[in-house]
Amino acid sequence: MLISAVIQNRAVSPTPLVLLVAMLSILLSGCQSLPIFSNPQPEQIVWNSKAEHIASHEFNLDGEQGMVGELASITSRENDTLSDIARHYGLGYNDITLANANLDPWILPADQTVLLPLSFVLPDAPRKGIVLNLANMRMFYYPKNQANTLLTYPVGIGRQGWNTPLGQTQIVAKKANPDWTVPESIHREHQALGDPLPKVIHAGPDNPLGSYAMPLGFSGYLIHGTNKPYGIGLQVSHGCVQLYPEDIEVLFNKVDVGTPVRIIHQPYMAAWQADTLYLEAHQPLEKWEKQQKQLQKDIRKKLQQLATEKQATVDWDKVERILQRADGVPTPVSKESPDLPELIANAIPLAHPERFYGQPVINELSDSDWSVLAASFENENDAQKLAAMLNHQGPPIPARKIAKGGSFQVVAGPFKNKKEAKTVAQRIKLNFDMDVKAIDPKQASRN
For the chain, what are the domain ranges? Predict the structure, then answer.
């Protein structure tokens, strides 16, 4: 059970871990759609930065340069979430939560420094076409017609039991506005969950492939968009590689059929940047966790080789701390080099944008709107957390916390009619294991 409580105007207080599990369930749920958000997207992201420039996706490469980017930071405002910040700056959920492990992803206090890990060690792989590193859930694209250029994007990948395969393949086709013929195995999975799918899901907001798909030479696997963008940076798919809608559009227009794709798993990477040796560490994915000791042994050997090339001295105690921390932040390992607190202090400060790209907009509830009572909590933070998770579903469910009678209710809406409200109530029940109810505006007005 994800949240084993029946909501009948009584307080429930799920733990943060239970809420995170519930969030993952939301991202793994069946494809449904409900056009209940007003959320116009800008044509492009406009950087409102204290710095003159900060790169997030496209970088120039100089020769055998092994690392790109810089660390940046932003000061949070009330009602910010790490998911909204991550998407705006081209990061995945894994990138930003690991780098800010002391912060609750869904309840950020105002004036909190959030580290933006926009610095990346390049994988040890040929710089040709697309290189996908499953360990840090990041794609590296080396355009054939743009020498010395790197494009990098966060991705969502296959979850345990549906792992994205390793190996060398290529883009075999490109499809805009694709239909999705649901595989029989996924039919069975959704049927067991009480969430049956049609045989074909046509192009549109219901389609989990998003607006663009590029089949790979591995049969049944694709690189595609998503209608659940807040799953980027998580193991959420049935093996396919997912990108933010805005990123897949750029990639789709740049790559050609026949572009090579190499899929690897490298949790530990090292490289020189100027005269400093860096280590970037991630936890191996579950499928490879038994190889962790050998993988760490291999990276220690590589660090020693890289250090010997320039007669440098490695701080091995620091290496062990970075391996244990495994937060994905490239950190210097040379003797007397700065550690994480100093790196954060020196990160490039960015001004807070007026609005984050893709951030949900929650319309006001009127007396004539249908709504859904999702839960009631004694703790305000728990109510805020659940509301934020509902707002970041795919498709999103607009929700807010409302103080009432000494507790805090999470109310979803507005919905145009009873059918929409019941559909959302069913989704919440399915994903959170809660008994929730649609609220008739006529009945609400009498209470």
Answer: 5-39+362-446
Q: Which residue has the tokens 């599990």?
A: 21
Tokens of 326: 């495994």
SS3 content of the chain, % helix, strand, coil (to 5): 25, 25, 45
Cα–Cα separations (whole angstroms), residue 259 to 23, 61, 262, 303:
35, 20, 10, 32
Q: Of 438, 434, 356, 360, which Cα lies nearest the Cα of 393?
A: 360
Class of domain 5-39+362-446: alpha beta
Looking at residue 235, its pLDDT comes to 93
- What pTM was computed for the model? 0.86
Average pLDDT over residues 1-26: 36
Between β-strands 149-154 and 138-142, what pairing exists: parallel, antiparallel or unpaired? antiparallel
What is the side-by-side order of every strand in the sheet holding 331-332? 268-273, 276-281, 331-332
Active-site positions?
Answer: 224, 240
CB 432 within 8 A of CB 4: no
Q: Mapping DSSP to helix (H, G, I), strand (E, B) and coil, where does residue 379 land? A: coil
pLDDT of residue 278 exceeding 50? yes
Tell me the residue ranges of DSSP E strands in 228-299.
235-237, 241-242, 260-264, 268-273, 276-281
Q: Is 354 helix (H, G, I), strand (E, B) or coil?
A: coil
In whole angstroms, what is the distance from residue 357 CA to residue 80 CA?
12
